[in-house]
Amino acid sequence: MSTPMATPNTAASRVQLPAKGPLLTRGGWSAFMMALIAVCAIAPVLNLWVPEGSVFHMSTYAVALLGKIMCYAICALAMDLIWGYTGILSLGHGVFFALGGYTMGMYLMRQIGRDGNYKSDLPDFMVFLDWKVLPWHWALSDSFVATLILIVAVPGLVAFVFGFFAFRSRIKGVYFSIITQAMTFAAMLLFFRNETGFGGNNGFTDFKRILNIPLATPSMRMVLFVLTGLTLLGFFLFAKWLVGSKFGRVLQAIRDAETRVMFSGYNPLGYKLTIWVISAIMCGVAGALYVPQVGIINPSEMSPANSIEIAIWAAVGGRASLMGPIVGAFIVNGAKSWLTVAYPEFWLYFLGLLFISVTLFLPDGVVGLVKKLRKGGAK
Questions:
Q1: Domain segments of the chain: what residues?
Q2: Do the Cβ atoms of 301 and 103 come closer than 8 Å?
Q3: Cα separation of 91 and 275, whole Å?
Q4: Structure confidence at residue 370 (pLDDT)
Q5: For the CA atoms of 337, 339, 340, 345, what is the dihedral angle to 10 degrees?
Q6: What is the CA radius of gyration of the chain?
Q7: Share of the chain above pLDDT 90, in %
């Protein structure tokens, strides 16, 4: 008498995905809360309430510098999502940064009102060029709510259109990088033209107020600083959640073996296009926060060199780590601020040497080096 064959347990035979870990470890949450306290409490106290003569006073220059670097850190984080986790090297993210900046700059120019040199409702550069009315694309520039929407919509729409045709054509690797660099160069040349209505070579500057509140006050500078810090921390948590989700795992699979992902039944187009648009929007928000703190936006922000620098920040800090690009942005731009004053003629040489050194000796960046040292110390 034969015994029936045992049927395999269907539930047990299924592939078990690894359990999703916490958003941050206990140490990670501690570091996050320390950063939050530093941005929202320590910095405002040191700048606004500690006397200028005190050694603990945080100068206005330091507030502006750190605020600017935090905007750069948002761009580096956006680059990590598209390059570090998806394997797509973009050399054109500077255009999305500038689009967000120009959108905010248009609103700030309208806020000047009749306080300009020509006492006109039109921006000074339009009066100088003998323009009689605002161009059509300035129609919503006097509304703060519309400006906030456009800061997201304009870079997102440009990224969607560009990415759809590029990814559908399966352009990848160095060819994609070259095309993105060509895109930002073409945009820079377009914005240099006076007839486009973006201020030409000089761009936008001489901002007076935002929401009818003067910009050139310590309290407003600190408000912008805090908003930038909160945005950076918020984007970091969002990116951490995103890369830990199923969507993020597919992105990393596309980075490592896109062909296998296609054979598994996934269409990489939707995933790559989505993360490309998200990354562009993050850069646009960073540009919008950058302009009122720096006080100027011009076509030089779209230069290919600026986009290359964003990639350098991510590489120096460590790709596919989220924290690495933020660290890289602070290291490179902090060094740049010091070297451009102390040794201005050597700054570009230092930047090139730094990128070559990281590529050759620190492929995982500064954060990767720290992790290796910790593992070696633990042994």
A1: 70-303
A2: no
A3: 16
A4: 87
A5: -160
A6: 24
A7: 80
Print burial letters for 196-216: b (CB count within 10 Å at least 16), e (below 16): ebbbbeebbbbbbbbeeeebe
CB 302 within 8 A of CB 98: yes
Instruction: Check: pTM over 0.90? Answer yes or no.
Output: yes
Task: List the one residue out of 177, 178, 174, 196 whose CA is nearest residue 187.
Answer: 196
Question: 216: closest CA among 127, 108, 300?
Answer: 108
13 pLDDT more than 60: no
Question: How many C-beta atoms lie closer than 10 Å to residue 352's C-beta?
Answer: 11
* 107, two tokens: 């609103």
The tokens 């699979």 sit on which residue?
Answer: 253
The 10s digit of each residue's pLDDT in 103-135 is 999 999 999 999 998 999 899 999 999 999 999
- Residue 375's pLDDT is what? 78
Number of Cβ atoms within 10 Å of the Cβ of 179: 17
Pair type for strands 296-297 and 209-210: unpaired
SS3 74: helix
| Per-residue CA distances from 169 to 24, 92, 172 (Å) | 38, 18, 9
Residue with tokens 């914005």: 191
The chain-wide mean pLDDT, for the chain, equals: 91
Quote the CA–CA distance of 160 and 166 in Å, as a whole number: 10
Quickly list DSSP for 18-44. Answer: PPP--SS-HHHHHHHHHHHHIIIIIHH
**What is the tens place of the pLDDT at every residue in 318-359?**
999 999 999 999 999 998 898 888 888 888 788 788 778 887
Dump the DSSP string for 226-267: HHHHHHHHHHHHHHHHHHHSHHHHHHHHHHHHHHHHHHTT--
CB contact at 8 A, 118 and 127: yes
Amino acid at 15: V
Nearest to 219, CA basis, from 38, 65, 36, 49:
49
| Residues written for the chain | 379
**How many CB atoms within 10 Å of residue 104?**
28
Which tokens hold the place of 340? 């451009």
